[in-house]
Amino acid sequence: MYELTLARIISGLQAGEFSSEELTGSFLTRIAALDSQLNSFITVDPDAAMAAARVADQRRAAGESGALNGVPIAHKDIFCTQGVRTSCGSRMLDNFVPPYDATLIQRFNAAGAVMLGKTNMDEFAMGSSNETSYYGAARNPWDTTRVPGGSSGGSAAAVAGGLVPAATGTDTGGSIRQPAALCGITGLKPTYGRVSRLGMVAFASSLDQAGPLARSAEDCAILLATMAGVDARDSTSADVPVPDYAATLGDSLQGLRIGLPREYFGEGLDAATGARIRDALSQLEKLGATLVDISLTSTELAIPTYYIVAPAEASTNLSRFDGVRYGHRCEDPTDLLDLYTRTRKEGFGDEVKRRILVGTYALSAGYYDAYYKKAQQVRRVIRDDFLARFEDVDVIAGPTTPGPAFPIGAKSDDPVAMYLEDVYTLAVNLAGLPGMSVPAGFVDGCPVGLQLIGRHFDEARLLNVAHQLQQVTDWHLQRPANPAEAA
Amino acid sequence: MISLRPRRGRDVFFPVYISMSIAQDEIEKLATLARIRIDGAQVGDVTERINQVLELVDQLQAVDTSGVTPMANPHDAVQRLRADEVTEINQREAFQAIAPAVESGLYLVPKVIE
Lengths: 487, 114
What we know:
Chain A is α/β, with parallel strands linked by helices. Helix content of chain A is 38%, strand content 13%.
């Protein structure tokens, strides 16, 4: 039962082939048996999940149906869930039980979804490997000595390992797409503003966006339909109509122009990964798309720009964690300054502290113009570079990451080497564009992903391209052996 | 701080100010600004790691951005306005239920004023 896609689960529940109680029970059993190998969950509440599943079954019997009625799902531990601990992978929020639900959580609950638990993540979403979590590293189901990617590593590992059919994640610099690529699943970062950020603990407010991780583009389309839409309580959410994503999945790719930036295929890209990406692209060509060589000259500016903008915004967002109103508080503070400085010393891990300090520096008097303001100018240059390319092509494609998953611990001593993992994904967040990662084969037995980038609010087209690719290839259908068996 | 290092795209070494490199005492000032205590034993390591990141972002100095308006939001969106009407209810009890220390509806902190 754990091998069913979301689409198949929905049709199966509708046809009465199985109940939500059976389905939820089977996933909870798998989590109990296998998650010690993956560490993909921070919080699982089996009793609450089974109760919710029974309610869903009763509702279905009474003729009430939400779009996701009875469907098991996991949420990244960055979304506030009322009454359920929300830790953001940090000691700072280890004891934080939110008094409200994020808008995204409310939408899933209204649709009838059954939450299995909260997934592991890099602390406060800062990382590309899920190694900075206070709750320990998550592991890649394809090879448990390797990282699942990050920061949505727990969500990616849980879906790839068959512990849950789908999960939510967030993406600030690649944190949905990169783990999706390294775990061999499909992940989508929507356009900035497409999904409400109310109740989603903020890392970088102008970059963060929530999105789905699932086994196929079709499944992502189903989830995005529930997630997308303007929210009066998030003034950065866009008042743009939500199209019927499922309706256009099957559109022909004839005449589609796919731009391939030469900067994405140069030095730094592992040769075997590049070959897999080229194979995937030739499949799209066979479906009628035209591949066009383009140049995104601003590509090399993405990393330095991001590592000023994101830490600067993080330093502001994380200043709310002060031991006063919620979360961790140091023992016996001697004065107010001691309360703040010791609470934050104890509550934050090393990478979070590093980024806060870099951000504080970039915003401080005397440096603001040279670094933060400069970065904001370069950010416009990067966005405009993409917009100019989209005059000649409809989709931009390339590898999601420079290579497959790396071993746990291999990059944790060198922050800059870790940052280079996101070289193809960061610019997409800076420009606010939608981006997807789709499975594109394997290198040394580990998955790699094809990244598709679209115009603002063109998620329907990305889902369409990914879906059509998945009709003629089977990379997305591959599953790793159960971790216990592989051990 | 002055040092000799090659600049991107140029053939010659010449002295430049490495404005993005921080000294240890500046790290301590930053830590105070950020309200994070860093142990004396860790300051050296933190300084080195941060300088690695700052070296990375130094590349932006070479980019010509004359006449470019800074972009804070990818859509150049502006704050939406609404009518000045009360729409939220007071939920102080619920929100304070998870606070470390409260009394009479107030959050308790160490004494600030002598």
